[in-house]
Amino acid sequence: MFKDGSRFISGSAILFYLLKPADILLAVWKLGSFFDSK
């Protein structure tokens, strides 16, 4: 049970680190397209 828990925590940490740059890139892209449309 503890092993599964730590595996889940490390799994969500990996997901978090993978998704964070994607969120930032998406926000930058949205900002860029917002300024381009003006």
Question: How does this model look, in words?
Answer:
- The protein is an all-alpha fold and 38 residues long.
- The mean pLDDT is 82.
- The protein is rod-shaped and about 55 Å long.
- Helix content is 92%, strand content 0%.
Task: Write down the secondary-structure element order.
Answer: H
Percentage of β-strand residues: under 5%
Largest sheet: none
Tell me the helix content.
over 70%
- Give the overall shape: rod-shaped
Uncertain ranges = none
Average pLDDT taken over every residue: 82
- Number of DSSP helices? 1
* Separation of the first and last Cα atoms: 54 Å
Helix/strand class: mainly alpha
Q: Please tally the β strands and state the result.
A: 0
Gist of the model:
This protein is mostly helical and 38 residues long. Helices cover 92% and strands 0% of the residues.
Write out key terms for the chains shown.
38 residues, rod-shaped, single chain, mainly alpha, 1 helix, 0% strand
Set out the fold topology.
Blueprint: H1 2-36
